[in-house]
Amino acid sequence: MGYSRFVAFSNLFRCPVVSDDNPEENIATCKIIEDNYNINIEHNDILTVTYLTKSGGFRQLYDKDHNRAYTRQHYKGQSIEKTVEFRFDFMSPVHCSEPGSKTTCSAAEKPIYVGKDVTQNEIDITWSGWFDALSGIAYYYLEVFHLKPNIHGDLTEPEPLKPILYFKTFNTTSVEFPHFTPPHSGMYSILLQASDKANNSKIARRLVLYDNESTLSLTKPGMLLGNAINASDMYIGDGGIHVSTAVLETGFLWQTTKNGKKTPIVLDWKNHFVIKMYEEGKLLNKVLPYPTQFVNLEDDGILRSKKYVSMDDNEGMRTVNAIPNIHGIVKFETKKVYTDDRRVPVSGWEAHSLSERYEVNEMLHDGSFVRFWVRATDIMKHTLADYTEVHIDNTPPRVAGVNFHENLVNGTHNHTSRITFVASDDGSGVHWIEYSFFVSNSTIALEKGAMPASRNNATRACIQDPMCNCVLETCFLREQTLDFDNCRFLVPKEDLNKSARIEVNVYNQALLYDTFTVNIRRLTDLGGLEEYSGPTNIHIEKNLATGVRLVWDLPKKASCYGRADIDVVVVDSGGRVKVIHVHNEGTFIDLVGLEPDNDYSISLKLGYRGTELAAQPYKFQTAPKQNYLEGSVIAGIVASAVAVIGIIISIVVVSYRRRRMQTEKGGLKAMSFKYIDAVDAINIGEKQNNSEM
Length: 693
Fold this sequence. Notes:
Shape: elongated
CATH class of the largest domain: Mainly Beta
Mean pLDDT: 84
Low-confidence stretches: 628-693
């Protein structure tokens, strides 16, 4: 081999169980143990064992005359010698690309080569440049695994001992390389194990992204598709593409600027572009090292039993490192267009950072607009573009021809008044109307309301309706009508002679507004507020010793006060007070549990939003105490009780049969209202009587 070897150990061992005087007639088994062997066997050591075996034995001559052993004669047998040589190889095969390799790779020599590692085609697998100087390459073993994300989103081989494909060849000089088409799109790892004749192995891994089915899609359709989008459903991050500095309420399409100054404009397309397969499969995430196998066997002393990757993938497009992406998108580009050309641009795209936000300062004037295009590219070079636009409006709407119509005969409410006016906005259109009600000089609104401005939403309205003020193919009508309920001015009775006003704000789509005020000389000029029309003709219909029926009338057409809450306040001669709430459409209440021949004061109080509006007083005296009940009264009470119980049972039975228990419960409660109040009054009366005893 060109050099002499140092002999670290040389010894002659004799087999102790055989000799010339102790030959073995059959097969001799010899076992020799060297207790003092202390030589460490290292890589490239050679252990030579030479076996020398000689036949022979002896013959014993016997002297018959003297009856004794005479002499022993040894045979001269044949001898044979055999040598066994053990060469120790503890080094794995080497690839020419490794540091310290004594050979240099050519450009084509790769530990494992898969061609394009991001592909939609069949995968051709080759390798070259492996060598083992001592024992030589014995075989190659190839495995393919389908990678899956773990709970942290990192890709790994979920079953590292169960490849979806394997290939083994002992032909190490002219290999017939395998071809592989994955069963479906995804991330795959390919492991090549090069093993020498001493069964030392080295594993190289390469990664492949195979994709023949993914599509770039939009979470929410943009303006390019021309679909109608409800502005009320929009918000940043909803999957749409918006100019976030524009007005949200009108679909992020309108913005104001300061003339002569650059205006910040922020374009946001968070979650707009997405490749679901990549996002769900985490196909561009980091790839973890191959999980080391058979560690326990190595720990148990079985040398070089571990299976691990020593040459991982750090070259090409798809390495073990994560590929920066957003929802599978690896590149964004933007382009600004100032014309009405809505075709996807073919040139002029500007590179953009991998983010879903674009900020720019633009010099935009009143009435101008800019269209923002965004183009997304995935790792397969697929592209998808979409756009949105922002329009500039620095001019508030114009309002004229304001008229106030009090107390319409057939209005939308019982007591309706109307404000009409003409509003127009050539820039962005009249969008929204807000109104507030004030009493006297108060700066705190009594009530507030809002309504959309008038539009014609017919498909061809901008072409067919001459009253249209068309903006972006939307027909905004100039004539506006604001109907309101006079009862929104419901105030305490002492404030009815005060003046009032209605402030109206008219907004365009840029939320610029014009304001006007409608003055009301006196609240009593408004129908429903001109007079108190609460309960009238209060009287006692039935007067018994311990209870009465209090009855009142309500107007056929209730004033605003007819909506007020009614509380019956009962005060006895001792000053004790009981308050009973009555439905605002009720016309009587039974008061029971009263004391005979006693004076009571009653007040029907009307309240609204916690404010007492008016009170109607009334006094009565209960009938004297009687020692017996007339037969007709008793019969009437019994009949009434039976009738009430019968009605309740009938309602329950019918409700059960028709499965309308929930609907009928409301009716039952309404019918039982006076009964509940009466029982409540009796209980309170009894408690009071008991406390006095």
